[in-house]
Amino acid sequence: MRKYALIFIFFFSLLTSCSLDDNTNEYDYYLEILPIESVDVPTQFVHGETYEISMTYTKPSPCYQFNDFIYEINGSERTVAIVNTVYYNGESNCIGDEEEITVSFNFSVLGHDTYVFKFFQGEDSQGIDQYYIVEVPVVDE
Predict the structure, then answer these.
(1) Contact by Cβ (8 Å): 118, 135
(2) In a designed cystine with 64, which of 8, 47, 59, 87 is the match (CB 3.0 to 4.6 A)?
């Protein structure tokens, strides 16, 4: 009886086991940084306040979905880029119109120095990153 139980377990595990080659996920994806086309930033900050900073970019097709921001801090300088996840399944099924998307984040003013924001706008013909630079002074209320 024990022998039959072991054979049953062996065949059951063969039928229900997963294969590493089994691709049940019909979509693959990659991350892409998209250029920021316009920004909405206050002309000045009040120390201790929080502000919403909005950015608009163009989503090339329905396969692009907002993922996150790249947000780097260097002293009072902030570098910001928009990251999208691009889903595809190996075919050209991402047909659709471009769409303008606006995303935002909240920025808390903790310092007293002027903040310099560098918003990523793509690369030039030599592959050098281009930025839209905005300086926002901090005032005491």
Answers:
(1) no
(2) 59
